[in-house]
C-alpha cells in the first residue's frame, strides 16, 4: 500500500451526526442528542470571527441548522454569506462590525453561544426589550384589537334587560345579540375578537352578571355603613328545588334622613359548612336557632357591617326566631354585645338591638284565631273550600258556571270579565294574608250564579256533591256569615296592606291600629238585614226557621258582636308595645308635650331607658329632654301627627334646628324610624324567587339566584344604572387578553 493510500486510509472520517456539520434534513432526535457536544469539539482553533476578505470568495466552514433559532429571535442566516445578529444591527453606535455589518462565517453553535455572551450583544438585547415594551404600551392605547367600552356597555344593557324581566339570561343573551344584529346594531361584532373571544359563553355571562350585582351590592353596603342606624329583616322559605332559602333585607337611614329598605342577600339556610361527616354539627342539618343566628352573624361580619349601629331585627315571629332564652334573635344580640365589649374599658357603652315580630303576621294571626271558637265561621270556611274544589277540579263545571253567569249577569264585573274567568270561586288559602276576605267578597258577588249552577249539576247530572253544597250555601247561617265576612275582613285587609308598605314605621302602625279598632267597634251594631235580603235578588232561596230580621238579631248577638270583639281583643293582645316601643311612642308623640299633660320626670325616664339600650350617653339625653319639652311647645309642634313630628326631627338639613340643638334625641328618632314593623319585603322576595327559579331553571346555583334577585329587587331602572362602572369592574376582575378601552 502506497504512502498516499495509507494517509487516506487513516484520515479521520467525517461524522454525519456532527451538530456543527449536519444539514437541515438531519433527524431531530440525532441533532438534539449531539446538541452541545459535537459542535464544540471540532476545529476549536479556528477563529470565531472568520471574515471573508474583500474581493475574495471563501467556502463557508460549516452548515447552518434552523434549530439554532429556537429562543434566538435575533439570529439571521444568509446563505453563502454567514450569520447576522438583527439586534446588534439596530444599534448604529456599536464599536464592532462583526455580526452587524459583516457576517460570521464560522457556522457553529459554539460561535453563536460566544456571541450571546458578549457585552455588546447584551446591551443590544436590553435596548430591544425596552423598545418592545414601549410599543406594547402604545398598542394598548391605540390597538384596534381591544374592546370598545361602548360595545360592552351595550352588551351589559342587553343582559340587564333579560335579568330585570325574568328571562333566562344564559340561553337568551346570545340570541338577543343576534336579534340586535338583524336590527342593525351589531353588538356582537363590537365585543368579539378572534374565534375564541366572543364573550357569550356561560362563564363570560356569569362574570358580567356578577359585576352588575356587585355594583348594586357595594352601593347598598356603603350606604348602610355610613348610616346612623340600620336594622335587619330575614325570613326563610323552600324554593322549587326543595332548598331552604333565607332572605335578608336591610332597613337604614339614608343620606337625606329617610328610611330605605333594600335587598341584601339570599342564603342556603341548610348549607353544610364542612365536608367531613365527623365534624358536622346538628345546627347545620336542621333549621334551628343556632343555624339561623350563625348565618346572620357571618353575613354581618364578612361584609363589615357595624354591630354598634344595628338597632332592630325583624322576623316572622316563629319560636325558632323569637325564643326568649335561645332564639335566633337572642343569639344575634348576644353576639352583638360580645363584639362591642372592650376589656380595657369595662364602662364602654354597648348598643343592643331589639327584636320585632312582623305586624302583618300578627294581624293575620289575630284575625284567623278569632274565628276558632265560632263553629259557624269554621263551617263557613269548610263550605267555601269545598266550593272552590268542586269547580277547580273540573273544566266542565267551571264552564257551566261561566255560562250561568253570562245568562244571569250577576254584576257588571262578571259581565265584562267573564271571558277571563273572573267569576271563579277563589281559594281561601290560610297561608295568604288577604285570601279569606278576597274570597268572601268575590263569592258574595256570584253567589246567585253559583247556586243556580249547583242546582243544575244536581238535577241534570245527578251530582250528590252539588246537591249537598247548594243545601249548605242557601242556609241562613252561611249567608249571614258571608255578609259578616264582607263587612269585617275588608277592614282587616286594608290595615294589612298598610302594614306591608316598605317605609312604614311604628308611629304609623299605632295610628292605623287605633283607627281600625274604632271601625270594628262600629261594625258590631251593623244591621245585616238589608244585605242578606239583597241576596234573594240573585235568585237564592234562603232557608230560615224564623223571619230574616229575627234571624239577623239572633246572629248579631251570638256571632257578629262576639266575633268582632274577639278580633279586637286579639289585636290589642298581639300589638301590646314593648317597654322600648312604649317609651318611643311617648317621647315622639307631640301631643305628650301639651302644657297640661307633660311630665318632665317621666319623659327623662323614658329617654334614659332608651339611651341605655342603644348605647347613647343618657346624661346628655336627659339634659336635652329638659329643654326639648319647652322647645316643642314654643315651636307649636304639639299639634303635629307623630309621623310628621318624626320626619321633622330626622330630616338632614343645615336648617334643621332640632338636629343641631338636640343631637341625642334626634338619634333616638332615627332609631325609632329604622325599627322594622314588618317583614313583608322578605315575603315579596319569595314571590320574586318563584318567578326567577322556576321548574325549568331548578338547577340554578345559589350565587346566580342571589345576583338575579338583587338585580330584580334592588336594581334601578335600566336607564339609571351605571353601566360604565359595571364594565370597568368586569374589566379589572381578571387579566383579560383583550382590554376594554375605557373612555
Question: Can you describe this structure?
Answer:
By secondary structure, this protein is an alpha/beta fold. It folds into four domains: 139 residues, no CATH class; 202 residues; 212 residues, no CATH class; 96 residues, no CATH class. Helix content is 55%, strand content 7%. The strands form three sheets. A five-stranded mixed β-sheet has the order 6-5-4-7-8, with helices on both faces.
Please describe the topology of this protein.
Blueprint lengths: L2 H8 L17 H6 L4 H4 L33 E4 L3 E4 H4 L19 H8 L2 H24 L4 E2 H16 L4 H14 L4 H5 L10 H25 L3 E9 L5 E10 L5 E10 L20 H14 L7 E6 L3 H4 L5 H13 L13 E4 L1 H12 L4 H18 L2 H14 L3 H6 L17 H26 L3 H10 L2 H24 L6 H18 L5 H8 L11 H27 L4 H9 L12 H15 L3 H18 L6 H9 L6 H5 L1 H12 L5 H13 L9 H13 L8 H10 L7 E2 L2
Helix pairs in contact: 7-8, 7-32, 10-31, 10-32, 11-13, 14-20, 14-23, 15-19, 15-20, 16-18, 18-19, 18-20, 20-21, 20-23, 21-23, 24-25, 25-26, 30-31
Please name the defining characteristics of this protein.
single chain, 743 residues, alpha/beta, five-stranded mixed beta sheet, two-stranded antiparallel ribbon
Helicity range: 55-70%
Number of helices: 32
* Structural class computed from helices and strand pairing: alpha/beta
**Order of strands in the sheet with the most strands?**
6-5-4-7-8
Low-confidence stretches: 1-61, 410-421
Number of domains: 4
Strand content: 5-15%
Radius of gyration, whole Å: 42 Å
Task: Name the shape in a single word.
Answer: flat
Average pLDDT score: 82
Give the distance, in angstroms, between the N- and C-terminal Cα atoms. Answer: 89 Å
Q: Based on DSSP secondary structure assignment, what is the total number of beta strands?
A: 9
